[in-house]
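Q: Study each token:
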Amino acid sequence: MAVSASAEIEMQLSGSAGDWTAVTSDARRQGPITAKYGILSSEPMRFVGDVGTLNFELDNSEGNSAKMLGYYAPDHACCLTGFDIGTPTRLSITYSGSTFYKFTGRLDSVEPVPGRYRDRRTVCQALDWFGDADAFKLRLLEVQVNKRADEALDAIVSSMTKRPSASSLSAGQETFAYCLDNSRDETTTVLRELKKLMDSELGYCYVVGDQSTGGLLKFDSRHVRPMNHTLTACLTDTDLVDAQVSRRTSNLFNQVRLVAHPREVDDSASVLFTLQSTPQMAPSTSMVITGRYSDPGQRGLSRVGGASMIAPCPATDYTMNSAEDGGGTDLTTNFTVAASYGGNSVQYEVANLGAVPGYITLLQARGRGLYDREPVAAEQVSESSVDLYGERVLTFDMPYNDDPLVAADFAGYLIGVLPTPSTRLEQVEFIGNVSDELMTAGLVVEPGARVKLTEAVTGIASEFFVQGCEVVLAVDGTIHFKWYVAPASSALYWILGIEGASELDETTILGY
């Protein structure tokens, strides 16, 4: 090998505030150690990272560093203290005096292989922050009013129990009148909400490595890539050990339909939730009740968002009575009601402080309803492409974009880059140990970086943006790097007011 680098798998065995402990010496080398993160696809219209993974095996036999059988089996008496699912885990690579944290996450699966006389190993997989984002459901997060994508993203991340190690959020280009209003708390994950935000902004969100902590959550607005002309690396076919190329009809679209969602907003407060039952509460007890907002005209059938929610008022928003039908003694003053309002649901904490049981005969939530009733589609067609290749339709939803003109602008941009065939370089792979240049490229380049790739057989000689990365520590000690790439030409549009932005309609097209 021309150059070498050292890799470490480390864990925080005493919690997220503790020191990092290396377990590299016990990593089994019968198979590779593999880390993947970022957008693991070159497909167009992919703006959000996939769940990143780190896969490795640990020596669970007496031959490990502790000389203990079961050292990496959580139910074994000799298990390493702190080793279990949820343990923070990272992969770092040190080269030429610099350390790069390529993956940071938490153990998601720990599977000891049973059998005293078999291959005593523990198969491990860690997930990056997107694993938490894919599991955590939005809960009682308020509607975001007149917020950019980065501001809404920050509000979402701040609501989570597990947050990324660090974040770098550029200022979004769109200000959304309303967002987080058309989600459903009970089913919508953070990852799904990130997709809705990015699809509306047309920006990118992924996790990248760095030289500080790794696991950096990054948001690039839709203007970041067109304004980034700095090449981080240049590779040719002599550097590559593998590349994947495609030229398919499925890669082109000649009819583009972008869907915007104008909102209807109540001028004044409406009743968005009414409790349909009359539960009885014993003295000195409490109860939690969750209500979901719906269209007052289609009660319970059409979910809506709610803004400017009003604190519950006795007699108006809640009443309690000794009789189920409300015809007995008014007990409202015996009760307290606290409401936590979200963008599409409310959670009540109701307490009966009295000495007698009572029925909840009225419980309702009032606020300004937000209605997503009539989405508007903006369409663009390339007739010449349709004549040649038939109809290839792309329908794309922009849930928080309420302006059909913005959708029309983006449709006009897409119809300028998608209707003609193109040879798509999807992935490239190279071995870092071949040269200093390649090792440096593999360690420095992260999702969002601009690179130049040349391949003689296919005739490809273009610039690309790296979408996602894969790092493989092979059994033979070499370090393989794989990049998932998207053509930089798809970001070659003109942002008005930027000097040297090329010739409109010749080497670039109007931005949006």
About this structure: The domain at 1-247+422-512 is CATH 2.30.300.10 (Phage tail proteins - horseshoe like beta roll fold). Residues 162 and 447 are 22 Å apart (CA to CA). The radius of gyration is 28 Å.
